[in-house]
Structure formats: structure tokens, C-alpha cells
Write a structure and sequence with these properties.
The protein is of the alpha/beta class. It has 19 helices and 20 strands. It folds into three domains: 6-12 and 22-267, TIM Barrel (Alpha-Beta Barrel); 269-348 and 441-500, HAD superfamily/HAD-like (Rossmann fold); 354-382 and 386-438, Hypothetical Protein, Haloacid Dehalogenase-like Hydrolase, Chain: A, domain 2.
Length: 501
């Protein structure tokens, strides 16, 4: 297999026929360590993967002699004379210095860092241990930590040991568990019957047995291919709709995947859906001339619409009365331009238990220290959506903009807010608030409802937004498997979407 550089990958894929449909994701094998100052399976390599923007990271978990959970490929600790980490106590393991100067991290430390990017999927490889009893202890310890730190939405368990896979499912049925194989070919029936969520194959297992991937994909199981460090294997994985490729060269792989998708999307997309705040504009600020020009150019080739958390009239006014269809309040209303005039064509409402919301948001304010606010605590929209405004409904715009620009404060609260309002959909909205809607309303379902009316299928839709992390108001787009482009800086939208022109 030939290696590739970023430039080589992009050039080759510029002429690749676009016959792809599933969006294959990049898993950074042992983190992103292929740069100076990093080393595999360290917190440094994890932070590198987070900054790089990969969708997944693989890490390896061992037990020390007194049952501490540590991250290391192993069994030897690099840079030391210790041949087997599983035969050492934690103090000895911690005394070792890895080649880049890092210490061997604990799983707790790894989880703490990983929670800063909740959209990142961790593929926890549970390493085989000498006896079934030790493997059971490993499974118990890992499950207990995942319970304590609420990590299940961010973790997929993988292992070469089928005993470990089965133990995780025994301890927590329904958990995402995937066996790893470098030789055995699992039947789809066996994977389903044993409760596995998919399978992770070495490339040698499937290169001449592609039906294993195709059948698993058709059954709705996840597939992982490893190691993928070449153009040939990336091409193979994408053509067989592999969900994740595990790569030691994640930066090159991301560029390669991007080049393929851009060419594919330009040929196949028919409907482009935009978020507004953070994507086309600063929060509640007017649409710029440059981004208005982007919309004007795109609408010559595609249908374009808006999907926002705000109401249709607010979005329409903020866009300077731009002529466009709007799905507002997460799909609870819809507006169109009819005979040159703005018109609400659909408006759905849902009753709100105000006493319940006032009580629960007051409890959250007391716990997190947001008891001093301006205006009302909550905004009750006519549709039935509720905005829980941490600074109050009458907070000054300047205060709101500097309150939580990276959304760290609200992400800390999000798991608890979601649990309290578990019968609703909860999103981190605006600059200081949470949007809470009836369960069935979110951007994914709103877009798919509109697409069905217009005769589009999901593969013909592209969503452009700024926050696809868990709790972000675009998160359901990612979770629903719709193709999307993330905008980190709305002023760079023209260059980000230029490939679609």
C-alpha cells in the first residue's frame, strides 16, 4: 500500500468518480501523535485530535495490579525497562516518563479532557488480560467510571477479547460494543444475536470478502476498518460505506475525505439548508453583503432554505427581508415568500406547563448561581417553545455576547438540564440560554419533513451550521446522519462554500 501526503490525496481525489453515499468518519488511532511534542495514547495526543477535529479517537485501557485504569498501548511502557504494564502498581506506572515527557494518563483524566469536545467519539479498546477474572474486573471498573462521569453518549467499547465485549453487555445491556477482529469473520446474524453494535475489521479480513462490510451496513451495524493510511484503503472504505477508518495519519485522511465529499456534494446535493446565528451572521446581527452574495450565488444551482431556533419573522427581519423559506422554532412554524410577501404557512403550537418550568429553572439557577437576572427567567413562545435565559430575558446585548462565547458554561449544565426536561428536546441556544421544545421538534426532523414534501431524499440535502456538538442547536443534524458543513467563523463562509459555486 502506498503512503500519501495531504497534497497527493487532494490531487488524486479531484478525479475520483463520486459514487459514495455514507459519510465515512476519521478515527485518530491512539490520538493525534504524528507531530513533534506528542506521543500515542497521551493527553497531548488527545488534545491534538480535538484540535484537529476528527470524529473519533481510539485509546487502549489496562488495569494495574491494584485495579487502576491507565491508558497505554502496551504491554511495555515506552522509554522504560518495564515489559508489562499489567504487572505494575499505579505508583510505578505513574513514575515513568514517556518519550514526549508526558506521564501515562488515567482513564479518568482522559475522560475529563474528552468531555471538552462532546461530539468526539471515544473508541475504548479494552486490552486482553491474563484471566477471565481480570477481564471481568476491567469491565466492571470501566463501566463504573462511565456511570460516574456520564460517558456513554461519547464511548464505544471495542476489544479483541469477546469475553470483555460480552462482559460489558452483561453489566450494561444496550451499550455500544464492537468486537475487533484480525482474522475471524463474524456473520451479521451472530453480531446481532450477541448484542454487538457492529464490528471492527483489519483490512486483511475484508479485502477479498467485501460482503462482510456490505451485509453489516445493510443491517444497520457500524463498521470500522483499520489501519487505513493509504489512498487505496480510504477509497475502499468509502465505497463500502465504512462508518469509521482508524488512521495513524488523521490530518491527511481528513483532507482526503474532504476533497472527496466536496466533489460528491457539488454533483449530488439539491437542497442546502442554513442555520443563521454563528453561521451566516453574528448573533442577532444583520446579514452581511458578502454572505448575502453567497446565498444569491448558491440559489442559482440549488434550492436554499433556513432552519433556525428563532421564530420565522425574527429570522426574516434579521436577514434584511431576504426572500427565502424559513423553518422556525425548530420546525414548529414555516414561512414562505408568496407573491413577493412574507407569509406564515404553517404554525404549530403545544401547551406549556409554566409552573413546572418555573420550578425547575429556579432550582437550576440556585444550583449554578444564576439567581441575579434581568427581566423574566424564561421566555414562553406562542409555539410552545421555552427559552431558559440564564441572564434573563432583558439582559444587555453586550453582557450576553461575553457571557459564554465558547458555550463551556452551558455544556457543563447540559446533561442535567436534559435529564430534568427529558420529555422535551433541549438545545444550547443563542448566547446565554437553553431552548426547550416539544420532543418531536428539532432541525433534523424539520428539514426532513420539508424535504419529503418537496421530493428530496436525505442524500440530496446539505446542512450548513455552526454547532453540531451534543446540545448544540444543530446537533440533531449530526445525530440523524445528514451531511453537514461546520462554520467556525461566519466571516469565512464564502471561502468555505466556494466549492459549491
Amino acid at each position: 500500500m502506498r503512503r500519501f501526503s495531504i497534497v497527493f490525496a487532494a490531487c488524486v481525489f479531484a478525479v475520483l468518480p463520486c459514487l459514495l453515499s455514507a459519510q465515512t468518519k476519521v478515527m485518530s488511532h491512539r490520538g493525534y501523535y504524528a507531530h513533534p511534542g506528542s506521543f500515542e495514547n497521551t493527553l497531548t495526543s488527545l488534545r491534538g485530535a480535538q484540535e484537529l477535529g476528527v470524529e473519533g479517537v481510539e485509546l487502549d485501557v489496562h488495569l494495574t495490579t491494584e485495579d487502576s485504569l491507565v491508558i497505554l498501548h502496551g504491554p511495555k511502557i515506552p522509554g522504560s525497562n518495564y515489559p508489562d504494564v499489567q504487572k505494575l502498581d499505579f505508583k510505578t506506572v505513574r513514575s515513568c516518563v514517556l518519550p514526549n515527557g508526558d506521564k501515562v494518563p488515567t482513564l479518568r483524566e482522559y475522560f475529563t479532557q474528552a468531555k471538552k469536545t462532546t461530539a468526539l467519539m471515544l473508541f475504548l479498546e479494552l486490552k486482553a488480560h491474563p484471566t477471565p477474572e481480570r477481564e471481568t474486573t476491567l469491565a466492571e471498573k470501566v463501566v463504573a467510571l462511565c456511570d460516574e462521569m456520564n460517558m456513554y453518549d461519547q464511548v464505544t467499547f471495542i476489544s479483541f477479547s469477546e469475553h470483555l465485549c460480552d462482559e460489558i453487555l452483561r453489566l450494561r445491556p444496550g451499550t455500544m460494543v464492537i468486537p475487533i477482529s484480525s482474522g475471524k469473520a463474524f456473520t451479521t446474524e451472530e453480531l446481532i444475536n450477541r448484542g454487538y453494535a457492529g464490528v471492527s475489521y483489519h483490512m486483511g479480513v475484508v479485502m477479498n470478502r467485501t460482503h462482510l462490510l456490505d451485509e453489516a451496513h445493510e443491517a444497520g451495524l457500524q463498521t470500522v476498518l483499520w489501519p487505513v493510511n493509504s489512498y487505496d484503503l480510504a477509497d475502499f472504505a468509502m465505497r463500502h460505506h465504512v462508518d469509521y477508518v482508524s488512521s495513524d495519519e488523521p490530518q491527511a485522511m481528513l483532507n482526503l475525505m474532504s476533497a472527496v465529499r466536496e466533489l460528491q456534494w457539488k454533483q449530488t446535493k439539491k437542497l442546502i439548508v442554513f442555520d443563521l446565528d454563528g453561521t451566516l451572521t453574528q448573533h442577532k446581527q444583520p446579514l452581511s453583503d458578502a454572505n448575502r452574495a453567497v446565498l444569491d450565488t448558491l440559489r442559482q444551482r440549488y434550492e436554499i432554505i433556513m432552519a433556525g431556533g428563532g421564530n420565522c419573522k425574527r429570522i426574516y427581519n434579521q436577514m434584511g427581508e431576504y426572500s427565502i423559506t424559513i423553518l422556525g422554532n425548530y420546525g414548529m412554524e414555516e414561512s414562505r415568500i408568496v407573491d413577493g410577501q412574507f407569509k406564515i404557512v404553517r404554525e404549530e403550537t403545544s401547551p406549556v406547563d409554566r409552573k413546572f418550568f418555573e420550578k425547575k429553572t429556579a432550582e437550576l439557577r440556585k444550583k449554578y448561581g444564576y439567581t441575579d437576572f434581568k427581566g423574566d427567567s424564561n421566555e414562553y413562545h406562542q409555539s410552545g417553545m421555552v427559552t431558559f435565559a440564564l441572564l434573563g430575558t432583558k439582559a444587555e446585548s453586550a453582557d450576553k455576547l461575553v457571557f459564554d462565547p465558547d458555550k463551556v458554561r452551558r455544556r457543563e449544565m447540559f446533561p442535567e438540564v436534559s435529564e430534568i426536561f427529558k420529555d422535551y428536546s433541549v438545545f444550547i441556544g443563542g448566547t446565554t440560554s437553553f431552548d426547550i421544545t416539544p420532543k418531536q421538534y428539532n432541525k433534523y426532523d424539520a428539514v426532513m419533513r420539508y424535504a419529503a414534501e418537496k421530493g428530496y431524499v436525505k442524500d440530496q440535502i446539505l446542512f450548513v451550521g455552526d454547532d453540531f456538538t451534543d446540545g448544540g442547536n444543530d446537533s440533531q443534524i449530526r445525530l440523524g446522519g445528514m451531511d453537514y458543513i461546520k462554520i467556525d467563523d461566519y466571516t469565512r463562509l464564502p471561502e468555505k462554500l466556494h466549492f459549491l459555486f
